[in-house]
Amino acid sequence: ATEPKASLPEDISEVLRLLETRTREIRTLIDQGNFASVYVPTMIAKDVALQLADRAAAFPPPLRLRVVEAVSHVVRTAWNLDRLGDIGDRKQLIRSQQEFASAIAQIRALHEGR
Which CATH number is correct for 12-112, 1.20.120.290, 1.10.3720.10, 1.20.1250.20, 1.20.120.420? Predict the structure, then answer.
């Protein structure tokens, strides 16, 4: 059975704060060398990002596709972070975490620029 999705705040700014918090948690785990635990905040953030994509209609039409593309990048880098955490490659984890954070920052910029 699948777990029900946790409900997200209505305010997209709050959702973005959740994603940014998870990004910091991921970086902290990497910095601590706790690579095997990276998957927990990574998968939570992936699920939150996917739910945010469901709300892309809240963005103006010209930005919707860019939001969905940024969410897709979050999802791809989340899976990569999970894989790299299993491998334990710090350099690649840091690079992937930076890509992850960049995709989330892009969503924030799109939200604030509307």
Answer: 1.20.120.290
